[in-house]
From TrEMBL:
Residues annotated as domain 3-keto-alpha-glucoside-1,2-lyase/3-keto-2-hydroxy-glucal hydratase: 36-265
InterPro entries hit by this protein: AL/BT2_dom
A Pfam short name: 3keto-disac_hyd
Protein name: DUF1080 domain-containing protein
Domain of life: Bacteria
Gene3D superfamilies documented for this protein: Exo-inulinase, domain 1
Lineage of origin: Bacteria, Pseudomonadati, Bacteroidota, Flavobacteriia, Flavobacteriales
Length: 269
């Protein structure tokens, strides 16, 4: 505050003027404009990505399950004989992250392989806070991680996307540890092969948000080790309750063709 004294008609008057600064809107606008989103996929090849498929060693892109084509990273079953045989696969970006926003677009295409599970129809996922793929067992189905489950509509009925599944993990929802395996989001259902925009905001081991087409559809906190796993159970049991502060990002293959594009990350302080 600044104070000014005036003598008016013999009366001493104090005039107060506020010196509180207005928000620097120009600086805020500049910050938004200079956000450094970085592309994780160049649209041409799988450089900087590592494949791990059940039953095959790390780095073996079995039957070209993951390909770069038409500017998209595709889950592709052209070389399969129409059977999946539980060869669950994941493709990992070669760097671990902790605080970030991840955004991409995805869509389901074609038909599911004939022996894929009914729940895996138009089903994929973005796995965050993943364990290192080099540490996975040869026949391990899924990495210990937080799964942002992606589901496509089946033509009729409701089937929300950007749900939460928890292979080897737990989270806190509404101030309580949530120990079920999967939880539905509040998203709409997206039928057919339309592109859907996904964004995930990850704040270390504090809060995680799922957004579909710019709308928040799920929020939870405190990701941590917990629950059943299908490899090295003793090791993970000894770590139960340990917070998940960082990890790898992977995209999933579960027997239905799916495409991803515009995969970008914004690291946060």
């Amino acid at each position: 505050m600044r104070f000014f004294l005036y003598l008016f008609c013999g009366v001493l008057t104090i005039l107060t003027i506020s010196c509180k600064k207005k928000p620097d809107t120009k600086k805020i606008e500049t910050s938004i404009l200079t956000e450094k989103w970085v592309s994780l996929f160049n649209g041409k090849d799988l450089n900087n990505w590592t494949v791990k498929i059940k039953g095959h060693p790390v780095g073996d892109n079995y039957k070209n399950t993951f390909i770069a084509e038409d500017g998209c990273l595709k889950v592709n079953y052209d070389a399969y004989d129409d059977t999946f045989n539980s060869t669950f696969g994941h493709i990992y970006y070669n760097k671990a992250f902790s605080n970030y926003k991840l955004r991409l677009e995805y869509r389901f295409t074609g038909k599911q392989l004939s022996d894929g599970a009914s729940w895996a129809t138009a089903n994929s996922g973005v796995m965050i806070h993943c364990e290192d793929p080099k540490n996975m067992g040869l026949d391990q189905n899924f990495p210990v991680s937080i799964e942002v489950q992606l589901l496509g509509g089946l033509g009729t009925g409701e089937r929300p996307t950007a749900n939460l599944c928890t292979p080897g993990t737990h989270v806190v929802i509404n101030d309580s540890i949530a120990t079920d395996h999967c939880f539905q989001s509040s998203s709409k259902t997206y039928h057919g092969d339309q592109w859907v925009k996904l964004e995930i905001e990850v704040r270390n081991d504090s809060i995680i948000k799922h957004l579909i087409n710019d709308h928040i559809v799920f929020t939870y906190t405190k990701p941590q080790i917990g629950g059943s796993v299908d490899f090295n159970e003793g090791l993970w049991k000894s770590k139960e309750g340990a917070p998940l502060k960082k990890g790898y990002i992977s995209l999933q293959s579960e027997s239905h063709p799916v495409e991803f594009k515009n995969i970008e990350i914004l690291e946060l302080e």
